Amino acid sequence: MNILFQIAVRNVFRNRRRSLFTLSAILVGLTVVLAIAGVSNAFYRYSIENAVNVKLGALQVHKRGYLNNLSLNPLTFNFEYSPEILKKVESVKGVKAASGRIVFRGLVSNGRNQALFFGNAVDVSREDNVCPRWRGTLTDGSRPLNPEDRGQALVGQELARSLNVAPKGLQLPDAKPETAGEFLNLSGASPQGRQNAVDVQVVGLSRSLLAIEEKRSLTLPLTVAQSLLGLEGRVTEIALSIEDLDSISAVQRRLQAALGDEFEVSTWSDVQPFLRDVLFRQRVMIGIISLILFVLVLFVIANTMTMAVFERTREIGTMLSVGIKRRQIQSIFLAEAVFIGVVGAALGTVTGLIAVLILNIIGIPLASGLAETGLLHPFVDFGFTLAAFAVAVVCSSLAGIFPARRASHLNPVDALRAS
Amino acid sequence: MADQSAVSAGKARVGSQNIIQIADLKKIYQLGKTSVEALRGVNFSVAEGEFTVVLGPSGSGKTTLLNIIGCLDRATSGQYLLDGEDVSNRDFNDLAEVRNFKIGFIFQNFNLIPVLNVIENIEFPCLVRDKREERAKLRERVRAVCAEVGLERFMTHKPDELSGGQRQRVAIARALITEPRLVLADEPTANLDSKTSDQILELMQRLNREHSTTFLFATHDPRVMELARRTVRIKDGLVVPD
């Protein structure tokens, strides 16, 4: 081993307490970064899976122009819901299942009050295959929609409360029993503007992560919406589940190619940009927190190295007197910083992974209780772990540069005179 | 440029060649707005194989002169030839090379590297060279030098496991391993008891005799002065004639 590197390593062990303190700073920093990233990853995956499995489906097929006209009259972008189109989309590689829907707006009334609702009409016989957890959002005492249902609906918890309706046998906490009911009247308009109304029986109350959804959402069988809106045999979207969420872009491309220009294929993030932005911002925050932790680590190491240069000034003078070059002095202190960085980062990676593993096994309870198990299971991927390790090492090296330069620019006479 | 008569103004001649030739050497320190002239035109030379003592009270310019002779510092003006080579205007890395190949240092505080053992401390100057000799050959030489200075039993000891005398022996061995043209010893016996001082001085004298290594001492120790074959006195930044 090179003598300069030997000096560097032995000096790390020489001042054990300080080296341990520095190593601990890197170790704690990296552990916290990995743990935060693990929790963030779990929340990211949970949010996506929640969106995909509860409501959106991984991919959605619409008539071209639908997404750009959501605020105008999206119902005009309806298309035939035929066995042929289902077969066509389900035969694309990577697609697991497909289910037709009509997404619309209308007014809901209990005979006394009226409210705006966002209707989600689903093909009950197929929805399970596309959004396997769509039934999981129901409150206790509710029953899910069945393929045989012809006039039943699920209502957002808050909407039900405001209209004082509940499924038979289910008492809302602050409802007035004398006015409570289980039937609602829905009114809507066909794409051509023809008004229509239909009565539905409330069989379940649904919950959501978003309060606005609980106040406005109403889920009903596709056939009910088709007759209400004059769209018999037609839908406004086909939602799809896919084999592997990580290959969503490839499936999207294949599907688009199979369907041609008449249709547009969107991912969950295209149809829910709000969710995408929230998740993106969350990731940015994690990045900033990690950066702050790494900068703190950098300062701790820089401080340690500066102290080391001060304490070893006469040694540096001795080395200079026997003819060591400036770059060699520099390399001793840099090697010391890098050594501390590599050891600290390695230990920090191990403890970080252990922390993530423990959190993964124990699970973090979710306040909303919407997840299947009600627990988040943190995880980190290899790429991020490697990147965090590398950044810790790079930070350590950067922290060593200034003290190393300072050491290498000492004047031999002054250095030898140091006490 | 100093003239040759000034350069050859030194007195004693042991070998045929002068190792140190200094002419009209000046060193001015800038302390704020004041200039302090530490050396005011020093002329002196040391011949190969000499055992010379530089004497002078504090503030006489003795340390400044030794620093310049040791290539640790540079003169403001004047000429300094070391082993016939002008080193007056060399840059930092060049001077490092000169120190490594031509000068050995022995310090009052021994100045060993605490994390290296005796062998490593001794071989250190040879290991920092760009072109290194074969490690096995170097180890062989280190062993020989250790034997010469009486350190055979302590070769794997760290400096803090050695007595003051043993540490100074390591410093002497480190100074000799590069086979330098000149060994500079700054108060080498100041931190040693009288018995150890005598042993160290005897050792240096023997090395001077057997290897014709040139020794230049800065000391106040009367025992060193007794042993010196030549004494150079410095006063107020000038060499005082005997």
The outline of chain A comes out as elongated
Largest interface: A-B, 23 and 28 residues
Name the helicity range of chain B. Answer: 25-40%
Q: What is the string of helix and strand elements of chain A? A: HHEEHEEHEHEEHEHEEHEHHHHEEHH
Number of domains of chain A: 2
Strand tally of chain B is 10
What is the beta-strand fraction of chain A?
Answer: 15-25%
Strand content of chain B: 25-35%
What is the straight-line distance between the termini of chain B? 26 Å
Mean pLDDT figure of chain A: 90
Looking at CATH, which topology of chain B would you report? Rossmann fold
Number of helices of chain B: 8
Order of helices and strands of chain B: HEEEHEEHEHHHEHEHEE
Estimate percent helicity of chain A: 40-55%
Rounded radius of gyration of chain B (Å): 18 Å
Largest sheet of chain A: 6 strands, mixed, barrel
CATH architecture descriptor name of chain B: 3-Layer(aba) Sandwich
The CATH homologous superfamily of chain B is named: P-loop containing nucleotide triphosphate hydrolases
Question: Which characteristics define this entry?
Answer:
heterodimer, A: alpha+beta, six-stranded mixed beta barrel, 14 helices, 18% strand, B: 242 residues, alpha/beta, Rossmann fold, six-stranded mixed beta sheet, 10 strands, 35% helix, globular, disordered N terminus
Q: What is the fold's blueprint, element by element?
A:
The complex is a heterodimer of chains A (419) and B (242).
Chain A: H1 3-14, H2 16-56, E1 59-63, E2 79-80, H3 83-90, E3 95-109, E4 114-122, H4 124-130, E5 152-156, H5 157-163, E6 183-189, E7 195-206, H6 211-216, E8 217-221, H7 222-229, E9 234-235, E10 237-242, H8 248-259, E11 263-267, H9 268-271, H10 273-311, H11 313-321, H12 326-362, E12 364-365, E13 375-376, H13 382-408, H14 412-417
Chain B: H1 4-7, E1 18-31, E2 34-47, E3 51-55, H2 62-69, E4 77-82, E5 85-86, H3 92-102, E6 103-106, H4 118-127, H5 135-149, H6 164-176, E7 182-186, H7 194-211, E8 214-218, H8 222-227, E9 230-235, E10 238-240
Parallel strand pairs in B: 3-8, 3-9, 6-7, 7-8
Antiparallel strand pairs in B: 1-2, 1-4, 4-5, 9-10
